Amino acid sequence: MTLINRPETVEYKVLLMPSNFYPKMSEERVDEWLAFIREFLQILAVRKKQQFNRRVSIGDLLAERIDNAAAYGFGEGTTMYDNVLVLGNVKVGQNTWIGPGCILDGSGGDLQIGDWCPISAGVQIYTHHTVNRSISLGEKPIDCAPTNIGNGVYIWSERSYSDGGDDRRQGHRRCKFIGKSGYSTRREGIWLSGANSRDARNHQGTSAAIRKQ
Questions:
Q1: Domain ranges within the chain, ordered by starting residue
Q2: What is the pLDDT of residues 132-167, one digit of tens each?
Q3: Is the pTM of this model over 0.70?
Q4: Going by C-beta distance under 8 Å and a sequence separation of 6 or more, which residues neighbour residue 127?
Q5: Across the chain, where does the E strand assignment appear?
Q6: Shortest CA distance to 111 belongs to which of 60, 72, 145, 157?
Q7: Interior angle at CA 194, CA 190 and CA 198, nearest 5
Q8: How sure is the predictor about 45, in pLDDT bands with cuts at 50, 70 and 90?
Q9: Is residue 178 a contact partner of residue 158, using CB atoms and an 8 Å limit?
Q10: How far apart are CA 79 and CA 36, in angstroms?
Q11: Looking at domain 65-199, which of 2.40.100.10, 3.40.47.10, 2.60.120.260, 2.160.10.10 is its CATH number?
C-alpha cells in the first residue's frame, strides 16, 4: 500500500496489527496516522462527488448500500445507508430503498416491510414504546407489538410509526406523508397526509396533489 503525500517521518510500510496501536502511542505518531486517514477519506469523498454528485457520511464512503442491506438478510435489490439503525427482528423485501438516518426497530416484535417500499430519510419505525411505563412510574410494562408494512408503501420523510398496543398493519400500495401517526387502514391505493390523515387526492381521484391538514 502506497502512502500519498506522506510526511518524511511516516514509515514506508503500513502496520495494521492491533499491537501497533498501543494506547501509549506518541502524539506525533497519532497525528501522522490521523493525517493519512483524513487524506484517504478526502480522496474517497472527491470520488463519490465525481461519480454521484453527492456528499455522504464516512460510513457510506467505505460501505456499499446494497451490501449493508444484504448483511442483514434483506431482499434482493434493497439498499440501506450505513447510518441506519436496525434493532432486533427486521425483515425487508425486495427493491426497497432505505434512506439515511432511519430507525428500524424490531426489538418489540417482528418488523416486516414489503417490496418496493421507499423509506425516506429520517423515518422511524418502532415496535415498542415506553410511554405507559414512564407515566406510571414503572408500574406498567413496555408496550410491544409486531408491525407489518405491505408492498408498495411509500413512507415520506419525518414519518414515524409506533406501536399502539396491538398488531399494526399498513396495507399495500399506499403513500404515507409527514405527520401521519402509524395507525392503519386497510384500503389500498390511497394517499394519506397530515396529522389526522385522510385520502388526500381530489374527489375524482385523479390528482396527486397532497396537502397537510
A1: 1-55, 65-199
A2: 999 999 999 999 999 999 899 888 875 455 554 444
A3: no
A4: 88, 105, 106, 107, 108, 109, 110, 111, 144, 145, 146, 147, 163
A5: 79-80, 85-92, 97-98, 103-113, 124-125, 128-129, 143-144, 147-149, 153-155, 160-161, 168-170, 174-176, 191-193, 198-199
A6: 145
A7: 35
A8: very high
A9: yes
A10: 30
A11: 2.160.10.10
Place of cell 447510518: 83
Convert the pLDDT of each residue in 4-15 to its tens digit.
454 444 444 444
Q: Which grid coordinates are listed for 80?
A: 440501506
pLDDT at 162: 54
Give the chain's largest Cα–Cα span. 73
Q: Match 501509549 to its residue by C-alpha cell.
A: 24
